[in-house]
Amino acid sequence: MHAYRSHTCADLTAEHVGQTVRLSGWVHRVRDHGGILFIDLRDHYGVTQVLCDPDSPAFRALEKVRSEWCIRIDGTVKARDPDLVNPKLPTGEIEVFVRDLEVLGASEELPLMVFGDQEYPEETRLKYRFLDLRRDAMQRNMTLRSDVVMSMRKRMWDKGFREYQTPIITASSPEGARDFLVPSRLHPGKFYALPQAPQQFKQLMMVAGFDKYFQIAPCFRDEDPRADRSPTDFYQLDMEMSFVTQQDVFDTIQPVLAGVFEEFGGGRRVDAEWPQISYADAALWYGTDKPDLRNPIKMQVVSDHFRDSGFAIFAKLLEQDGTEIRAIPAPKGGSRKFCDRMNKFAQEQGLPGMGYIFWRDQGDGMEAAGPLAKNIGPERTEAIRQQLGLGVGDAAFFLGGKPKAFEGVAGRARAVIGEELGLTDKNRFAFAWIVDFPIYQRDDETGALDFDHNPFSMPQGGMTALNGDPLAVRGFQYDLACNGYELVSGAIRNHKPDIMFKAFELAGYGPEEVKKRFGGMVNAFTYGAPPHGGCAAGIDRIVMLLADTANIREVIMFPMNQRAEDLMMNAPSDPTNEQLRELRLRVLPPES
Asked: Residue 19 to residues 25, 26, 78, 293: CA-CA distances in angstroms?
Protein backbone atom coordinates (compact mmCIF):
# COMPACT_ATOMS: atom_id res chain seq x y z
CA MET A 1 0.00 0.00 0.00
CA HIS A 2 1.15 3.54 -0.67
CA ALA A 3 2.96 5.24 2.20
CA TYR A 4 0.24 7.84 2.70
CA ARG A 5 -3.00 6.95 0.92
CA SER A 6 -4.78 4.41 -1.19
CA HIS A 7 -7.63 6.83 -1.89
CA THR A 8 -8.43 10.52 -1.48
CA CYS A 9 -11.06 11.71 0.97
CA ALA A 10 -13.57 12.05 -1.88
CA ASP A 11 -13.13 8.60 -3.47
CA LEU A 12 -14.87 6.09 -1.23
CA THR A 13 -18.41 4.91 -1.97
CA ALA A 14 -20.61 1.92 -1.11
CA GLU A 15 -18.62 -0.10 -3.66
CA HIS A 16 -15.61 -0.01 -1.31
CA VAL A 17 -17.43 -1.48 1.71
CA GLY A 18 -15.29 -4.17 3.34
CA GLN A 19 -12.01 -2.94 1.85
CA THR A 20 -8.98 -1.91 3.89
CA VAL A 21 -7.96 1.63 2.90
CA ARG A 22 -5.42 4.26 3.82
CA LEU A 23 -6.33 7.96 3.95
CA SER A 24 -4.30 11.07 4.77
CA GLY A 25 -5.58 14.54 5.49
CA TRP A 26 -6.47 17.10 8.12
CA VAL A 27 -8.76 16.68 11.09
CA HIS A 28 -11.69 18.88 10.10
CA ARG A 29 -13.65 18.35 13.32
CA VAL A 30 -13.84 15.84 16.18
CA ARG A 31 -17.02 14.54 17.82
CA ASP A 32 -17.22 12.28 20.86
CA HIS A 33 -20.48 10.33 20.95
CA GLY A 34 -20.50 8.34 24.16
CA GLY A 35 -17.01 6.95 23.86
CA ILE A 36 -17.09 6.57 20.07
CA LEU A 37 -14.89 9.13 18.31
CA PHE A 38 -16.03 10.51 14.98
CA ILE A 39 -13.62 12.56 12.86
CA ASP A 40 -14.28 14.34 9.59
CA LEU A 41 -11.04 13.81 7.71
CA ARG A 42 -10.44 16.38 4.97
CA ASP A 43 -8.07 16.70 2.05
CA HIS A 44 -8.12 18.89 -1.08
CA TYR A 45 -10.69 16.64 -2.72
CA GLY A 46 -13.32 16.11 -0.04
CA VAL A 47 -14.28 14.78 3.39
CA THR A 48 -14.60 11.25 4.74
CA GLN A 49 -16.05 10.39 8.13
CA VAL A 50 -13.81 8.08 10.14
CA LEU A 51 -14.63 6.58 13.53
CA CYS A 52 -13.00 4.66 16.31
CA ASP A 53 -14.13 2.93 19.53
CA PRO A 54 -12.15 1.58 22.49
CA ASP A 55 -11.84 -1.83 20.77
CA SER A 56 -9.51 -0.29 18.17
CA PRO A 57 -5.77 -0.26 18.91
CA ALA A 58 -5.73 3.30 17.51
CA PHE A 59 -8.30 4.64 20.00
CA ARG A 60 -5.91 6.09 22.59
CA ALA A 61 -3.84 7.84 19.93
CA LEU A 62 -6.95 9.17 18.19
CA GLU A 63 -8.23 10.66 21.47
CA LYS A 64 -5.26 13.05 21.42
CA VAL A 65 -5.72 14.53 17.95
CA ARG A 66 -7.21 18.00 17.55
CA SER A 67 -8.51 20.20 14.75
CA GLU A 68 -6.10 20.65 11.82
CA TRP A 69 -3.70 17.93 12.87
CA CYS A 70 -2.43 16.22 9.74
CA ILE A 71 -2.86 12.43 10.13
CA ARG A 72 -2.71 9.14 8.23
CA ILE A 73 -5.24 6.42 9.06
CA ASP A 74 -5.67 2.81 8.03
CA GLY A 75 -9.11 1.29 8.39
CA THR A 76 -12.02 -0.71 7.06
CA VAL A 77 -14.77 0.83 4.94
CA LYS A 78 -18.23 0.30 6.44
CA ALA A 79 -21.70 1.18 5.18
CA ARG A 80 -23.56 3.77 7.20
CA ASP A 81 -26.98 2.95 8.58
CA PRO A 82 -29.62 4.11 6.06
CA ASP A 83 -30.90 6.84 8.39
CA LEU A 84 -27.33 8.17 8.86
CA VAL A 85 -26.45 8.53 5.17
CA ASN A 86 -25.32 12.08 4.32
CA PRO A 87 -26.54 12.86 0.76
CA LYS A 88 -24.55 16.13 0.74
CA LEU A 89 -21.22 14.27 0.64
CA PRO A 90 -19.94 12.02 -2.17
CA THR A 91 -18.67 9.77 0.65
CA GLY A 92 -21.91 10.07 2.61
CA GLU A 93 -22.87 6.39 2.25
CA ILE A 94 -19.79 5.08 4.08
CA GLU A 95 -17.47 5.60 7.02
CA VAL A 96 -14.05 4.17 7.84
CA PHE A 97 -13.36 2.30 11.07
CA VAL A 98 -9.83 3.28 12.13
CA ARG A 99 -7.41 0.49 13.04
CA ASP A 100 -4.10 2.38 12.76
CA LEU A 101 -3.08 6.02 13.05
CA GLU A 102 0.05 8.04 12.34
CA VAL A 103 0.34 11.73 13.19
CA LEU A 104 2.05 13.33 10.22
CA GLY A 105 1.95 16.88 11.60
CA ALA A 106 0.52 18.10 14.90
CA SER A 107 -0.99 21.57 15.12
CA GLU A 108 -0.68 24.23 17.77
CA GLU A 109 -3.74 26.14 19.00
CA LEU A 110 -5.36 27.70 15.94
CA PRO A 111 -5.45 31.50 15.42
CA LEU A 112 -8.47 30.96 13.14
CA MET A 113 -10.81 28.02 12.68
CA VAL A 114 -10.94 26.22 9.38
CA PHE A 115 -14.24 24.48 10.15
CA GLY A 116 -17.33 26.68 10.11
CA ASP A 117 -18.17 30.12 8.75
CA GLN A 118 -16.68 32.38 11.41
CA GLU A 119 -15.53 35.80 10.26
CA TYR A 120 -11.99 36.89 11.12
CA PRO A 121 -10.18 40.22 10.63
CA GLU A 122 -8.44 40.44 7.29
CA GLU A 123 -5.08 41.00 9.00
CA THR A 124 -5.46 37.66 10.81
CA ARG A 125 -6.51 35.89 7.64
CA LEU A 126 -3.54 37.22 5.67
CA LYS A 127 -0.97 36.56 8.40
CA TYR A 128 -2.14 32.94 8.61
CA ARG A 129 -3.06 32.64 4.94
CA PHE A 130 -1.93 28.99 4.83
CA LEU A 131 -4.72 28.24 7.32
CA ASP A 132 -7.23 30.56 5.68
CA LEU A 133 -6.65 28.77 2.38
CA ARG A 134 -7.67 25.45 3.96
CA ARG A 135 -11.23 26.74 4.29
CA ASP A 136 -13.70 25.29 1.85
CA ALA A 137 -14.66 28.60 0.22
CA MET A 138 -11.01 29.51 -0.39
CA GLN A 139 -10.23 26.06 -1.80
CA ARG A 140 -13.14 26.52 -4.22
CA ASN A 141 -12.00 30.02 -5.22
CA MET A 142 -8.43 28.95 -5.96
CA THR A 143 -9.58 25.88 -7.88
CA LEU A 144 -11.94 28.12 -9.86
CA ARG A 145 -9.07 30.48 -10.66
CA SER A 146 -6.88 27.65 -11.92
CA ASP A 147 -9.71 26.25 -14.04
CA VAL A 148 -10.48 29.68 -15.53
CA VAL A 149 -6.84 30.18 -16.55
CA MET A 150 -6.73 26.72 -18.12
CA SER A 151 -9.93 27.46 -20.05
CA MET A 152 -8.58 30.79 -21.27
CA ARG A 153 -5.39 29.17 -22.50
CA LYS A 154 -7.27 26.45 -24.37
CA ARG A 155 -9.66 28.93 -25.98
CA MET A 156 -6.79 31.14 -27.15
CA TRP A 157 -4.88 28.19 -28.62
CA ASP A 158 -8.08 27.09 -30.37
CA LYS A 159 -8.21 30.53 -32.01
CA GLY A 160 -4.74 30.13 -33.50
CA PHE A 161 -2.78 32.06 -30.85
CA ARG A 162 0.52 30.92 -29.38
CA GLU A 163 1.73 31.85 -25.91
CA TYR A 164 5.03 33.73 -25.63
CA GLN A 165 6.73 35.03 -22.50
CA THR A 166 7.99 38.58 -22.12
CA PRO A 167 10.70 39.87 -19.70
CA ILE A 168 10.03 40.43 -16.02
CA ILE A 169 13.06 42.70 -15.56
CA THR A 170 12.98 45.59 -18.02
CA ALA A 171 13.20 49.37 -18.40
CA SER A 172 10.87 51.80 -16.68
CA SER A 173 7.92 52.67 -18.90
CA PRO A 174 5.03 54.92 -17.89
CA GLU A 175 1.77 52.95 -18.12
CA GLY A 176 -0.38 55.11 -15.86
CA ALA A 177 0.93 53.93 -12.48
CA ARG A 178 4.16 53.91 -10.47
CA ASP A 179 6.89 51.43 -11.33
CA PHE A 180 8.50 48.99 -8.92
CA LEU A 181 12.22 49.69 -9.39
CA VAL A 182 14.97 47.09 -9.08
CA PRO A 183 18.54 48.33 -8.42
CA SER A 184 21.27 46.97 -10.69
CA ARG A 185 24.35 45.49 -8.98
CA LEU A 186 26.38 45.48 -12.20
CA HIS A 187 25.44 49.06 -13.08
CA PRO A 188 25.54 51.04 -9.83
CA GLY A 189 23.06 53.91 -9.67
CA LYS A 190 20.89 52.47 -12.43
CA PHE A 191 17.60 50.66 -12.04
CA TYR A 192 15.48 48.11 -13.83
CA ALA A 193 11.71 48.10 -13.46
CA LEU A 194 9.15 45.36 -13.08
CA PRO A 195 6.79 45.68 -16.07
CA GLN A 196 3.46 47.36 -15.47
CA ALA A 197 2.30 45.36 -18.51
CA PRO A 198 3.96 43.59 -21.46
CA GLN A 199 2.76 46.49 -23.65
CA GLN A 200 5.92 47.46 -25.49
CA PHE A 201 7.21 43.91 -25.85
CA LYS A 202 4.01 42.59 -27.37
CA GLN A 203 4.00 45.46 -29.86
CA LEU A 204 7.61 44.70 -30.73
CA MET A 205 6.56 41.08 -31.35
CA MET A 206 4.14 42.31 -33.99
CA VAL A 207 6.93 44.31 -35.61
CA ALA A 208 9.01 41.11 -35.51
CA GLY A 209 6.38 39.32 -37.58
CA PHE A 210 4.59 37.20 -34.97
CA ASP A 211 1.02 37.58 -36.15
CA LYS A 212 -0.77 36.57 -32.94
CA TYR A 213 0.42 36.55 -29.35
CA PHE A 214 -1.11 35.84 -25.97
CA GLN A 215 0.22 35.37 -22.47
CA ILE A 216 -1.08 34.85 -18.95
CA ALA A 217 1.05 37.78 -17.90
CA PRO A 218 2.08 38.99 -14.44
CA CYS A 219 1.97 42.79 -14.16
CA PHE A 220 3.45 44.96 -11.42
CA ARG A 221 2.12 48.36 -10.40
CA ASP A 222 2.77 50.38 -7.26
CA GLU A 223 -0.86 51.45 -6.83
CA ASP A 224 -3.14 52.47 -4.03
CA PRO A 225 -5.25 49.41 -3.14
CA ARG A 226 -8.99 49.07 -3.68
CA ALA A 227 -11.38 46.20 -3.07
CA ASP A 228 -11.22 45.30 -6.79
CA ARG A 229 -7.51 45.99 -7.32
CA SER A 230 -4.29 44.50 -5.95
CA PRO A 231 -1.76 47.11 -4.75
CA THR A 232 1.30 45.30 -6.12
CA ASP A 233 0.81 42.66 -8.79
CA PHE A 234 -1.93 41.08 -10.86
CA TYR A 235 -2.39 38.75 -13.79
CA GLN A 236 -3.99 39.41 -17.14
CA LEU A 237 -4.86 37.56 -20.31
CA ASP A 238 -2.72 39.65 -22.64
CA MET A 239 -3.12 39.48 -26.43
CA GLU A 240 -2.01 41.29 -29.57
CA MET A 241 -2.66 40.82 -33.30
CA SER A 242 -1.33 42.30 -36.53
CA PHE A 243 -3.35 43.63 -39.47
CA VAL A 244 -6.53 44.08 -37.43
CA THR A 245 -9.21 46.68 -36.86
CA GLN A 246 -10.91 47.48 -33.58
CA GLN A 247 -13.84 45.22 -34.50
CA ASP A 248 -11.46 42.33 -35.21
CA VAL A 249 -10.18 42.55 -31.63
CA PHE A 250 -13.75 42.55 -30.30
CA ASP A 251 -14.71 39.56 -32.44
CA THR A 252 -11.67 37.63 -31.19
CA ILE A 253 -11.84 38.19 -27.44
CA GLN A 254 -15.64 38.23 -27.03
CA PRO A 255 -16.24 34.48 -27.60
CA VAL A 256 -13.27 33.65 -25.36
CA LEU A 257 -14.65 35.62 -22.41
CA ALA A 258 -18.29 34.70 -23.08
CA GLY A 259 -17.27 31.03 -23.07
CA VAL A 260 -15.43 31.41 -19.77
CA PHE A 261 -18.41 33.12 -18.12
CA GLU A 262 -20.81 30.51 -19.50
CA GLU A 263 -18.55 27.70 -18.29
CA PHE A 264 -17.92 29.01 -14.77
CA GLY A 265 -20.80 31.44 -14.13
CA GLY A 266 -22.85 29.02 -12.09
CA GLY A 267 -25.87 29.19 -14.38
CA ARG A 268 -26.10 32.98 -14.44
CA ARG A 269 -27.13 34.33 -17.83
CA VAL A 270 -24.40 35.73 -20.08
CA ASP A 271 -25.76 38.46 -22.34
CA ALA A 272 -25.30 37.61 -26.01
CA GLU A 273 -25.38 41.26 -27.11
CA TRP A 274 -22.38 43.37 -26.08
CA PRO A 275 -23.30 46.95 -27.07
CA GLN A 276 -20.66 49.48 -28.08
CA ILE A 277 -21.16 52.69 -26.11
CA SER A 278 -19.11 55.82 -26.61
CA TYR A 279 -17.14 57.14 -23.64
CA ALA A 280 -19.22 60.35 -23.76
CA ASP A 281 -22.53 58.47 -23.75
CA ALA A 282 -21.40 56.19 -20.91
CA ALA A 283 -20.57 59.23 -18.78
CA LEU A 284 -23.93 60.82 -19.66
CA TRP A 285 -26.16 57.79 -19.22
CA TYR A 286 -24.38 55.99 -16.39
CA GLY A 287 -21.94 58.44 -14.76
CA THR A 288 -19.02 56.05 -15.31
CA ASP A 289 -17.00 54.42 -18.08
CA LYS A 290 -17.60 50.99 -16.50
CA PRO A 291 -21.40 50.85 -16.30
CA ASP A 292 -23.44 48.08 -14.75
CA LEU A 293 -26.01 47.35 -17.45
CA ARG A 294 -27.90 44.94 -15.21
CA ASN A 295 -29.37 48.18 -13.86
CA PRO A 296 -31.80 49.54 -16.51
CA ILE A 297 -31.64 53.17 -15.30
CA LYS A 298 -30.32 55.57 -17.94
CA MET A 299 -29.71 59.21 -16.99
CA GLN A 300 -30.78 62.05 -19.25
CA VAL A 301 -30.06 65.76 -19.73
CA VAL A 302 -33.06 67.86 -18.68
CA SER A 303 -31.47 71.32 -18.69
CA ASP A 304 -34.15 72.94 -20.90
CA HIS A 305 -36.85 72.23 -18.34
CA PHE A 306 -35.01 74.23 -15.67
CA ARG A 307 -33.70 77.11 -17.78
CA ASP A 308 -35.39 80.39 -16.67
CA SER A 309 -37.52 78.34 -14.25
CA GLY A 310 -38.71 79.11 -10.74
CA PHE A 311 -36.00 76.93 -9.25
CA ALA A 312 -33.33 79.60 -8.88
CA ILE A 313 -30.42 77.28 -7.98
CA PHE A 314 -30.61 75.37 -11.26
CA ALA A 315 -31.65 78.39 -13.33
CA LYS A 316 -28.58 80.35 -12.22
CA LEU A 317 -26.30 77.35 -12.69
CA LEU A 318 -27.38 77.09 -16.31
CA GLU A 319 -26.31 80.69 -16.96
CA GLN A 320 -22.69 79.50 -16.61
CA ASP A 321 -20.82 77.94 -19.53
CA GLY A 322 -20.43 74.17 -19.53
CA THR A 323 -23.15 73.41 -17.01
CA GLU A 324 -26.18 71.17 -17.32
CA ILE A 325 -28.87 69.44 -15.29
CA ARG A 326 -29.20 65.65 -15.40
CA ALA A 327 -32.02 63.46 -14.20
CA ILE A 328 -31.77 59.97 -12.71
CA PRO A 329 -35.10 58.17 -13.26
CA ALA A 330 -36.18 55.98 -10.33
CA PRO A 331 -39.02 53.63 -11.30
CA LYS A 332 -40.94 52.52 -8.18
CA GLY A 333 -39.06 55.10 -6.07
CA GLY A 334 -42.00 57.45 -5.65
CA SER A 335 -42.15 57.92 -1.88
CA ARG A 336 -40.97 60.84 0.20
CA LYS A 337 -39.14 58.46 2.53
CA PHE A 338 -37.04 57.02 -0.31
CA CYS A 339 -36.42 60.45 -1.82
CA ASP A 340 -35.22 61.83 1.51
CA ARG A 341 -32.91 58.83 1.88
CA MET A 342 -31.32 59.48 -1.52
CA ASN A 343 -30.98 63.18 -0.71
CA LYS A 344 -29.07 62.18 2.42
CA PHE A 345 -26.90 59.88 0.29
CA ALA A 346 -25.89 62.85 -1.90
CA GLN A 347 -24.97 64.85 1.19
CA GLU A 348 -22.80 61.97 2.42
CA GLN A 349 -21.02 62.11 -0.96
CA GLY A 350 -20.10 65.75 -0.38
CA LEU A 351 -22.90 67.49 -2.32
CA PRO A 352 -25.41 69.93 -0.81
CA GLY A 353 -28.17 67.50 -1.73
CA MET A 354 -30.08 66.07 -4.64
CA GLY A 355 -33.33 67.54 -5.92
CA TYR A 356 -36.23 65.19 -6.59
CA ILE A 357 -39.75 64.91 -7.93
CA PHE A 358 -42.08 61.97 -7.32
CA TRP A 359 -45.47 61.23 -8.83
CA ARG A 360 -48.42 59.95 -6.81
CA ASP A 361 -52.06 59.08 -7.42
CA GLN A 362 -54.51 61.68 -6.17
CA GLY A 363 -57.69 59.79 -7.06
CA ASP A 364 -58.77 62.22 -9.74
CA GLY A 365 -55.35 62.10 -11.45
CA MET A 366 -51.61 62.08 -11.01
CA GLU A 367 -49.80 64.67 -8.91
CA ALA A 368 -46.11 65.66 -8.94
CA ALA A 369 -44.73 66.18 -5.44
CA GLY A 370 -41.53 67.45 -3.89
CA PRO A 371 -39.82 70.85 -3.59
CA LEU A 372 -38.74 70.96 -7.24
CA ALA A 373 -42.27 70.33 -8.49
CA LYS A 374 -43.58 73.28 -6.51
CA ASN A 375 -40.86 75.58 -7.83
CA ILE A 376 -41.02 74.81 -11.54
CA GLY A 377 -44.78 74.27 -11.89
CA PRO A 378 -46.97 71.52 -13.40
CA GLU A 379 -46.20 72.19 -17.07
CA ARG A 380 -42.43 71.74 -16.75
CA THR A 381 -42.89 68.85 -14.32
CA GLU A 382 -45.13 67.04 -16.79
CA ALA A 383 -42.62 67.60 -19.59
CA ILE A 384 -39.90 66.04 -17.44
CA ARG A 385 -42.13 63.06 -16.63
CA GLN A 386 -42.88 62.44 -20.28
CA GLN A 387 -39.23 62.75 -21.33
CA LEU A 388 -38.19 60.22 -18.69
CA GLY A 389 -41.13 57.88 -19.36
CA LEU A 390 -42.24 57.80 -15.71
CA GLY A 391 -45.63 57.40 -14.08
CA VAL A 392 -47.48 57.01 -10.78
CA GLY A 393 -45.22 55.59 -8.07
CA ASP A 394 -42.03 56.71 -9.81
CA ALA A 395 -39.49 59.40 -8.98
CA ALA A 396 -36.61 61.31 -10.54
CA PHE A 397 -33.51 62.80 -8.95
CA PHE A 398 -31.58 65.80 -10.28
CA LEU A 399 -27.97 66.97 -10.16
CA GLY A 400 -26.52 70.07 -11.76
CA GLY A 401 -23.27 71.85 -12.52
CA LYS A 402 -20.27 70.99 -14.67
CA PRO A 403 -20.63 67.29 -15.51
CA LYS A 404 -17.15 66.26 -14.35
CA ALA A 405 -17.96 67.65 -10.90
CA PHE A 406 -21.06 65.53 -10.33
CA GLU A 407 -20.89 62.58 -12.75
CA GLY A 408 -19.20 60.30 -10.23
CA VAL A 409 -21.83 60.94 -7.57
CA ALA A 410 -24.59 60.56 -10.16
CA GLY A 411 -23.17 57.19 -11.17
CA ARG A 412 -23.02 55.98 -7.58
CA ALA A 413 -26.55 57.28 -6.94
CA ARG A 414 -27.80 55.37 -10.00
CA ALA A 415 -26.22 52.19 -8.61
CA VAL A 416 -27.77 52.67 -5.16
CA ILE A 417 -31.21 53.42 -6.65
CA GLY A 418 -31.08 50.32 -8.83
CA GLU A 419 -30.00 48.20 -5.86
CA GLU A 420 -32.51 49.51 -3.32
CA LEU A 421 -35.47 49.42 -5.70
CA GLY A 422 -34.66 45.88 -6.86
CA LEU A 423 -34.11 46.97 -10.45
CA THR A 424 -30.65 45.42 -10.84
CA ASP A 425 -30.79 41.85 -12.16
CA LYS A 426 -28.26 39.90 -10.08
CA ASN A 427 -28.58 36.72 -12.12
CA ARG A 428 -26.72 37.82 -15.25
CA PHE A 429 -23.45 39.09 -16.65
CA ALA A 430 -24.01 42.22 -18.75
CA PHE A 431 -21.12 43.35 -20.97
CA ALA A 432 -20.53 46.58 -22.88
CA TRP A 433 -17.65 47.85 -24.98
CA ILE A 434 -16.78 51.44 -24.12
CA VAL A 435 -15.27 53.11 -27.21
CA ASP A 436 -14.20 56.50 -28.60
CA PHE A 437 -12.08 57.59 -25.65
CA PRO A 438 -10.75 61.16 -25.84
CA ILE A 439 -6.98 61.26 -26.20
CA TYR A 440 -6.47 64.73 -24.68
CA GLN A 441 -7.77 66.87 -21.86
CA ARG A 442 -7.05 70.46 -20.86
CA ASP A 443 -6.01 71.32 -17.32
CA ASP A 444 -8.64 73.64 -15.82
CA GLU A 445 -6.04 75.66 -13.89
CA THR A 446 -3.07 75.88 -16.25
CA GLY A 447 -4.86 75.47 -19.58
CA ALA A 448 -2.14 73.01 -20.65
CA LEU A 449 -3.01 70.08 -22.87
CA ASP A 450 -2.19 66.58 -21.62
CA PHE A 451 -3.12 63.01 -22.37
CA ASP A 452 -6.51 62.01 -21.01
CA HIS A 453 -6.11 58.35 -21.90
CA ASN A 454 -3.62 55.96 -23.52
CA PRO A 455 -1.05 58.03 -25.45
CA PHE A 456 -0.16 55.05 -27.68
CA SER A 457 -3.62 54.66 -29.22
CA MET A 458 -4.01 55.44 -32.90
CA PRO A 459 -6.02 58.67 -33.24
CA GLN A 460 -9.22 58.22 -35.21
CA GLY A 461 -8.51 60.13 -38.41
CA GLY A 462 -4.72 59.88 -38.01
CA MET A 463 -2.64 62.99 -38.73
CA THR A 464 -5.64 64.87 -40.08
CA ALA A 465 -7.38 64.65 -36.71
CA LEU A 466 -4.26 65.83 -34.86
CA ASN A 467 -4.15 68.94 -37.03
CA GLY A 468 -7.62 69.94 -35.81
CA ASP A 469 -9.03 70.59 -32.33
CA PRO A 470 -7.08 68.30 -29.95
CA LEU A 471 -10.03 68.03 -27.54
CA ALA A 472 -12.13 66.57 -30.35
CA VAL A 473 -9.61 63.78 -31.09
CA ARG A 474 -10.83 60.31 -30.24
CA GLY A 475 -8.63 57.26 -30.08
CA PHE A 476 -9.10 53.69 -31.21
CA GLN A 477 -9.12 52.75 -27.55
CA TYR A 478 -11.65 50.57 -25.79
CA ASP A 479 -12.58 49.01 -22.47
CA LEU A 480 -14.93 46.15 -21.71
CA ALA A 481 -17.22 46.67 -18.73
CA CYS A 482 -19.14 43.93 -16.95
CA ASN A 483 -21.49 44.38 -13.99
CA GLY A 484 -19.83 47.66 -12.99
CA TYR A 485 -16.20 46.55 -13.35
CA GLU A 486 -13.61 47.16 -16.05
CA LEU A 487 -12.50 43.74 -17.26
CA VAL A 488 -10.60 44.54 -20.46
CA SER A 489 -8.61 47.48 -21.77
CA GLY A 490 -6.99 47.77 -25.18
CA ALA A 491 -6.38 49.79 -28.32
CA ILE A 492 -5.37 49.83 -31.92
CA ARG A 493 -1.79 51.05 -31.58
CA ASN A 494 -0.23 54.15 -33.04
CA HIS A 495 2.45 52.44 -35.15
CA LYS A 496 3.47 55.42 -37.34
CA PRO A 497 6.39 57.49 -35.98
CA ASP A 498 5.24 60.78 -37.55
CA ILE A 499 1.78 60.47 -36.01
CA MET A 500 3.29 59.42 -32.69
CA PHE A 501 5.66 62.41 -32.57
CA LYS A 502 2.78 64.74 -33.43
CA ALA A 503 0.53 63.21 -30.76
CA PHE A 504 3.18 63.71 -28.09
CA GLU A 505 4.07 67.18 -29.37
CA LEU A 506 0.49 68.35 -28.70
CA ALA A 507 0.90 67.21 -25.09
CA GLY A 508 4.19 69.08 -24.70
CA TYR A 509 6.70 66.27 -25.34
CA GLY A 510 9.37 66.95 -27.96
CA PRO A 511 10.88 64.30 -30.25
CA GLU A 512 13.99 63.88 -28.09
CA GLU A 513 11.87 63.26 -24.99
CA VAL A 514 9.81 60.65 -26.84
CA LYS A 515 12.96 58.91 -28.11
CA LYS A 516 14.45 58.95 -24.61
CA ARG A 517 11.35 57.42 -23.00
CA PHE A 518 10.28 54.99 -25.72
CA GLY A 519 13.40 54.66 -27.85
CA GLY A 520 13.13 50.92 -28.41
CA MET A 521 9.60 51.08 -29.74
CA VAL A 522 10.07 54.27 -31.78
CA ASN A 523 13.16 52.78 -33.39
CA ALA A 524 11.31 49.58 -34.27
CA PHE A 525 8.47 51.51 -35.89
CA THR A 526 10.91 52.95 -38.45
CA TYR A 527 11.52 49.44 -39.86
CA GLY A 528 8.21 48.48 -41.42
CA ALA A 529 5.77 48.21 -38.51
CA PRO A 530 2.41 46.60 -39.31
CA PRO A 531 -0.92 47.98 -38.08
CA HIS A 532 -1.65 46.11 -34.86
CA GLY A 533 -3.83 46.13 -31.79
CA GLY A 534 -4.93 44.07 -28.86
CA CYS A 535 -6.15 44.11 -25.30
CA ALA A 536 -5.67 42.65 -21.84
CA ALA A 537 -8.30 41.06 -19.60
CA GLY A 538 -7.83 41.17 -15.83
CA ILE A 539 -7.87 37.58 -14.59
CA ASP A 540 -8.17 38.45 -10.88
CA ARG A 541 -11.22 40.63 -11.51
CA ILE A 542 -12.85 38.06 -13.81
CA VAL A 543 -12.48 35.34 -11.18
CA MET A 544 -13.78 37.75 -8.54
CA LEU A 545 -17.01 38.15 -10.55
CA LEU A 546 -17.34 34.43 -11.20
CA ALA A 547 -16.78 33.67 -7.50
CA ASP A 548 -19.44 36.27 -6.63
CA THR A 549 -17.22 38.16 -4.20
CA ALA A 550 -16.60 41.91 -4.02
CA ASN A 551 -13.02 41.66 -2.71
CA ILE A 552 -10.22 40.68 -5.07
CA ARG A 553 -8.13 39.29 -2.20
CA GLU A 554 -10.63 36.41 -1.97
CA VAL A 555 -9.41 35.04 -5.31
CA ILE A 556 -5.64 35.68 -5.03
CA MET A 557 -3.62 32.93 -3.37
CA PHE A 558 -1.25 35.16 -1.37
CA PRO A 559 -2.42 38.81 -1.58
CA MET A 560 -1.04 41.87 0.12
CA ASN A 561 -3.09 43.82 2.63
CA GLN A 562 -4.47 47.34 2.11
CA ARG A 563 -1.06 48.82 2.99
CA ALA A 564 0.75 46.66 0.39
CA GLU A 565 2.26 44.45 3.10
CA ASP A 566 2.70 40.69 3.12
CA LEU A 567 2.07 39.92 6.80
CA MET A 568 2.86 36.23 6.35
CA MET A 569 6.31 36.68 4.73
CA ASN A 570 7.05 40.05 6.41
CA ALA A 571 7.43 42.05 3.21
CA PRO A 572 8.57 44.67 2.52
CA SER A 573 11.54 44.12 4.81
CA ASP A 574 14.68 46.04 5.69
CA PRO A 575 17.74 45.29 3.53
CA THR A 576 20.97 44.28 5.21
CA ASN A 577 23.94 46.65 5.22
CA GLU A 578 25.80 44.14 3.05
CA GLN A 579 23.05 44.23 0.42
CA LEU A 580 23.03 48.02 0.39
CA ARG A 581 26.83 48.20 0.03
CA GLU A 582 26.78 45.71 -2.83
CA LEU A 583 24.15 47.80 -4.65
CA ARG A 584 25.85 51.09 -3.68
CA LEU A 585 22.62 52.36 -2.14
CA ARG A 586 21.87 54.42 0.95
CA VAL A 587 18.47 54.45 2.65
CA LEU A 588 17.27 57.84 3.86
CA PRO A 589 15.21 57.93 7.08
CA PRO A 590 11.50 58.66 6.52
CA GLU A 591 10.46 62.28 6.67
CA SER A 592 8.92 63.19 10.01
From this structure: 19, 22, 8, 56
